[in-house]
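Help wanted!
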Amino acid sequence: MRVLVVEDERKLAQVLVSGLEAEHYDVVAAATGEDGFFRASSEVFDLLVLDIMLPGRSGLEILKALRHRRIDTPVLILTARDGIDDRVLGLDLGADDYLVKPFALPELLARIRALLRRGRPSEAFRLKAADLELDIVARRASRGERLLDLTAREFELLEYLLRHQGHLVSREMLAREVWKEPRRATPIDNVIDVQMARLRKKVDAETGPRLIHTVRGVGFVLREGEP
Amino acid sequence: MRRWARASIRFRLTAWYTAALALMLVVYAGATFIAVRHEFNERLEEEEQEHATGREAENPEARLRQQLGEILTVMVLGLPPIVVLAGAGGYLLARRALAPIDQVAADARRITADRLHQRLSVPNQHDEIGRLAAVINDTFARLESSFEQLRRFTADASHELRTPLAVIRGTGEVALRESRSPAEYRETIGSMLEEVDRLTSLVETLLRLSYGDAGTVRLSRERLDLGQLTREVAGSLAVLAEDRNQRLHLDAPDGIGVVADRLILREALRNIVDNAIKYSADGATIGVRAASDTGGATVTVVDQGPGIAPEHRERIFDRFYRIDEGRSRDEGGAGLGLAIAKWAVEANGGRITVDAGDRGGAIFRIVLPAGPPAARVDFEKESVDA
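Answered by r_m:
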């Protein structure tokens, strides 16, 4: 999978490149709007990560020009402004998703996975990790022979973790996706932490290897073995 | 005399001018009268002389005309000095009455941002200028308190922003002093990231408040059920109460209609309920009640915390205001929760107040204008999903 990152802030570009490379993407970086547009229109990429505020040519202009040329590579825009106008404008111009800076890398990676997966059926009805099984339709969770008695929220939380199995999940992602809380200003981190502790007690307490791990300062990950 | 001083400038100006005009009219009339009398006397003397000498007047009509002409001349000549005098008097009066305005203007010019504690001198607090000066002084007082608030806010904000920065820096510097195991590095980086999280959410909150101040937040108001929203918030925070063996007593029936921005109002409710849980002791009971009455729709949150002393109640909603200065960041947060709640409630046209509870805790009360009963949105949702 080839990804083009158009970002002028050198350090941030570096972080994006190494973060994506660690996930085995083939990454190309462009530091200016002109370079980004040139590459995006002359080479083939599976995805574009586009900063909006670029010297020379703004991200929105690039996006507009690309869509005008009927290049419909999925585009994820990065913006420092969270005014609604920017977002709407970006999405209207044909962006597929957006993230507001400062964003968490796990979240960017999750968004990119979702964009690349788009169009392919991915909604599994049964999710598995080691001997943990989740039946989405019957809303049943079991660990080996043991049936887990989960509340609705715990079930959603576990489902989200399983869908991102092996990948880091930030509290912000959980707040937005599981608690449907789009604002970052009202942290519900304490709620998430308490809920997660309870879920972990039910899932990991008795048998088998530990599945839910906390990564300090980042979030959580569900995987077999150590994170 | 005292009544005179209390009179308005309008009245005083009119009275002064009337008196001056009356005086001048008397002078004018007097002068005219003297002139006429003088002519009459002359005429009488001439007639007597004629009578004595036996000579008949040659042309009595012409002489009468001449004398009338003389009177007219006196009157016409007297007019300009009187007009000039009246004008000068009026000018002097107006200048005297309006002089305080120049004084007020000069005073006001002296008061700058860093001298906001100064006030205008009020020459006479009962007349128009006195009232104007009082209003301006009032404005200065409010400006001063806004400036003071802003100054405090900036100081608090930079303190709150600097603390995590200092922690990040210190943690990094200490970690780099000697080489450590990968696990230790992970701990260090994790701890730094936690501070980054804190910093991010702080900046986010401040931005939201400043958008609120600037009035650039667009509300998407909808009809919603306050009872339902209250249950939703209490439900999502219930785990926190359970975790501390607290009882969350919830009384929020359906059918309390309000028109509000759901997300913003939810933020206010969450902050209040979260505080109630945070400040109540383990095992306490927290009451959350939604109701509607004639005054509007209300949500009341009763906690069993330490309560809020009367002197703090005014300022508890101020940004960064903490009752207990010594409270650590981990327990107390940055002190913006209630500021956000207040903003969120007021943006939705409501009010938020705090009172003392019967048994020591605090009672937070949110009052929103009553709206029509919430629309049934379930149908809409279904059609979207399908």
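OP: Thanks! One thing I noticed: Confidence is low (pLDDT under 50) at residues 377-386 of chain B.
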